[in-house]
Structure formats: C-alpha cells, structure tokens
Design goal:
heterodimer, A: mainly beta, B: mainly beta, 11 strands, globular
Chain lengths: 113, 114
C-alpha cells in the first residue's frame, strides 16, 4: 500500500518568514495530494490540494509543488502569521474509485512572534 | 463548519464493551470515510462507503465494522474494546466523482476506553 513520509516533525519560524514542509510518497499510482491543517482538538481542514496533472498550485500565501518523478510534494507558506500555528498533514490518494487518504505523520508548525 | 456531523462528541467506556459512532455527511455527498487518529498511529484510514456500499478498506480491525444507510448516514461499530482503541474518530464525506474530490471532515468523536 501507499506510504507517506513527512518532514520535519516540528518547524519553528519567525513571524513573517516562510515555512516549507516536505512529503514523499511510495505509490506511483497516487494522483491526488491534499494538505490539511489541524488545530488542537479540532477537525482537519483542507488548505490546498494538487492533482498529478499539475506541477504547482498557489492560493494567496500558500503554495504546493509536486514532483511526480521524484514522488515528492511540498507545502510552502509565505509571510507566516501567528494563526498559521497548527499541525499540518500531507496526504496521498491513489484513487481508482477507492480514495481513502494515506496521511503523513504531521508537522507541528510554530510561529514565533 | 464543514457540514459533516458526528455524534457523540465524547464517549467513555470500559474494555470489552461495544460502542457505535454516528456520522451524517454533507448534503449531496455520497461517499463517507472513517479515520482514526491516535498519538502513536497518526491519522489512519479505516473504511470508505459509497452510496450504501463498501468501497475500500484501510487499516480497520476485524472487531470494527461500519455501514452506510439509505439516508447516507453512516455508523462505525467498535466491539471488544481495548485500551489501545482510545482515539479520536473522524468521519469525512465527499461528493465522489471520477475526479478526486475534497474530503470534508466532521468534528470527531473522542473515545476513551478505561
């Protein structure tokens, strides 16, 4: 089955700086890669996703890049703000009608004021 | 608010017992997914239902089962509970089409097995 590795497990950045979280996946059939943000005790919320026919996608301060050859994808957050502090999860889905997500272990992003 | 509802919010029970968690998907969503989140295992996919039929199985134990009813709500049944089953259980739903659709998560049910 699919295996998703996520790094780093903890990331501390100064407010206003950029943050990058990286993930690798193992199943070359995977074609959908969402990123979720989870605040303590809350539900995961989708912040951005990318499909395998696209190399990059941007939404305001958030961007995701995908390298299918290397089987890795990254989340980039620019101009970080205190409200960006949370745990971020990457995930992959191989689809084919059965699209349960395989999640990475998560990155605890800490924005230092 | 994602539009996905889950009940109950919290559940405390004893080892060996059986519990049922309930999920109502967003209006119009045909697919329901169940996930388990624990400190040691992270977020794990358990099972997916689409329009009443089981579509995919993940890391679901044999002691666990699920079903999706004609009104599309779903129930996750956990039996012979063990201490290690203590976790946050999330339900998610999606429209489900040929193109991968966003999965919207419910608020979760926190299960504590004593």
């Amino acid at each position: 089955g699919e295996n998703v590795e996520q790094h780093p497990s903890t990331l501390s950045v100064q407010e206003g700086d950029s943050a990058v979280i990286k993930c690798t996946y193992s199943d070359s059939a995977s074609n959908y890669f969402p990123w979720y943000k989870q605040e303590l005790g809350k539900r995961p919320q989708l912040i951005i996703d990318i499909r395998s026919n696209v190399g990059e996608k941007k939404d305001q301060r958030i961007a995701v890049t995908l390298n299918k050859t290397a089987k890795h994808f990254s989340l980039h957050i620019t101009e970080t703000q205190p409200e960006d502090s949370a745990v971020y999860f990457c995930a992959a889905s191989s689809g084919g009608g059965a699209d349960g997500l395989t999640f990475g272990k998560g990155t605890h992003l800490i924005i230092q004021p | 608010d994602s539009g996905v509802t889950q009940t109950p919010k919290h559940l405390i029970t004893a080892t060996g017992q059986r519990v049922t968690l309930r999920c109502s998907p967003r209006s119009g969503d045909l697919s329901v997914y169940w996930y388990q989140q624990s400190l040691d295992q992270g977020l794990q996919f358990l099972i997916q239902y689409y329009n009443g039929e089981e579509r995919a199985k993940g890391n679901i134990l044999e002691r666990f089962s699920a079903q999706q009813f004609p009104d599309l709500h779903s129930e996750l049944n956990l039996s012979s509970l063990e201490l290690g089953d203590s976790a946050l259980y999330f339900c998610a739903s999606s429209v489900d089409s040929e193109v991968r659709e966003t999965q919207y998560f419910g608020p979760g049910t926190r299960l504590l097995v004593l």
